[in-house]
Amino acid sequence: MQGKKIGIIGSGSWATAMIKMLCENDQDKHIFWWIRKEEDAEYIQQFKHNPTYLSGVSVDLSITTIDTNAKNVVVNSDIVILNTPAAYLKDALRGVTKEDFKDKIVVSAIKGIIPKDNLIIGEFLEQHYAVDIERICVVGGPCHAEEVALGKLSYLTFGCKNLDSAALVASFLSSRVIKTILSEDILGIEFGAVLKNIYALAGGICHGLGYGDNFQAVLVSNAIREMRRFVAKVDGDTSRDVNTSAYLGDLLVTAYSQFSRNRTFGNMIGKGYSVQSAQLEMNMVAEGYYASACIQEYAEKYAVELPICDAVYQILYQHQPASKIIQALSEKLT
Ligand SMILES: NC(=O)C1=CN([C@@H]2O[C@H](COP(=O)(O)OP(=O)(O)OC[C@H]3O[C@@H](n4cnc5c(N)ncnc54)[C@H](O)[C@@H]3O)[C@@H](O)[C@H]2O)C=CC1
Ligand SMILES: O=C(CO)COP(=O)(O)O
């Protein structure tokens, strides 16, 4: 086995899109891919496709080992990419120890907060697995798995305090159609991604209620300012440029794209679906639903006003009528 060994933990759309990026990138490597369900692993082994997500993507089994044991994948890899929804990460890593993560570069492709622990993934890795901040990398930027599957030109931002590590990870995912950007702003990229999901959910709710593009534009304009205020409050950095692709870019793609899980989920809520029925209707996870509850605690902790996040929380968790809450929100937007 030549080159670096790269592990992927996750078997949904984004993990499958990353498998495509890795398989199409021409650097020497071997991939270890954790698949949650035994039957899916057998299917991929036989047919070289994920049966459930992005089934058009073909898996190069000459450089990919499929495994249903996450510990094996972590232990065998030099670089481990975490790619489950945040709510399932602890479950996916059951049995994996701090020792297993020792000296690895650990990459989070997750855009969510671990519910109950209320930790973004970087914090979770430091606290639960003693992963040093220099070895934690996050992947952000506007990039839908479905467009990666279609070979559409996309840009990813790799955030790491150690830019050499960010560059190393990026070098395995880049290609003619995947451009990479490096950044040291792990915290900003992580929180930006968490918040944009909540804002896209708000946009979906408004669309479902019948608000038009004029209002959506005002909502998104307020959302990026709310994001900047929040992240600056968390780390005290007021110089961050949120108009770049990892922040504004990701907010725009999630707020407007037909592929967005969060917008689709919000749209159903705006149309009157209950949270449960909207979740059942989608075979995918809208991270913004979980993040909405978690971010309330952060807002209190950092004493920062987040009117859009508050509105989403009142609709999803306090069962307030969406039309009344969005009407009240609309009075606060500028
Ligand atoms: N889909 C996309 O285009 C992008 C997704 N992301 C992020 O990637 C992360 C993964 O999301 P997706 O791949 O989109 O997920 P998805 O919504 O496509 O798939 C759901 C995933 O959850 C897993 N799952 C369902 N029930 C589970 C359980 N009980 N225990 C463990 N796992 C379970 C499924 O196996 C599947 O991997 C999220 O944080 C998302 O925000 C980031 C960028 C793009
Ligand atoms: O983060 C994403 C694209 O950058 C995916 O999230 P959505 O599917 O909600 O847009």
TrEMBL record:
User: Where, in this chain's numbering, is NAD(+) bound?
Assistant: 145, 261
Q: Give, as in the UniProt entry, the pathway in which the protein acts.
A: Membrane lipid metabolism; glycerophospholipid metabolism
Top-level enzyme category: oxidoreductase
Ranges for domain Glycerol-3-phosphate dehydrogenase NAD-dependent N-terminal come to 5-164
List keywords of the entry alphabetically.
Cytoplasm, Lipid biosynthesis, Lipid metabolism, NAD, NADP, Nucleotide-binding, Oxidoreductase, Phospholipid biosynthesis, Phospholipid metabolism
The UniProt record gives the binding positions of NADPH as: 13-14, 36-37, 53, 111, 145, 261, 285, 287
Its BP terms in the Gene Ontology are: carbohydrate metabolic process; glycerol-3-phosphate biosynthetic process; glycerol-3-phosphate catabolic process; glycerophospholipid metabolic process; phospholipid biosynthetic process
Put simply, this protein is called: Glycerol-3-phosphate dehydrogenase [NAD(P)+]
Annotated positions binding sn-glycerol 3-phosphate: 111, 141, 196, 250, 260-262
Quote the record's binding site residues for substrate. Answer: 111, 261-262
- NCBIfam families (alphabetical): PRK00094.1-4
Q: Which GO terms describe its molecular function?
A: glycerol-3-phosphate dehydrogenase (NAD+) activity; glycerol-3-phosphate dehydrogenase (NADP+) activity; NAD binding
Provide the transmembrane region boundaries.
none
Q: Which Gene3D superfamilies match?
A: N-(1-d-carboxylethyl)-l-norvaline Dehydrogenase, domain 2, NAD(P)-binding Rossmann-like Domain
* Family (UniProt): Belongs to the NAD-dependent glycerol-3-phosphate dehydrogenase family.
Give the active-site positions: 196
Q: Which reaction does it catalyse?
A: sn-glycerol 3-phosphate + NAD(+) = dihydroxyacetone phosphate + NADH + H(+); sn-glycerol 3-phosphate + NADP(+) = dihydroxyacetone phosphate + NADPH + H(+)
Which residues belong to any copy of the Glycerol-3-phosphate dehydrogenase NAD-dependent C-terminal domain? 185-326
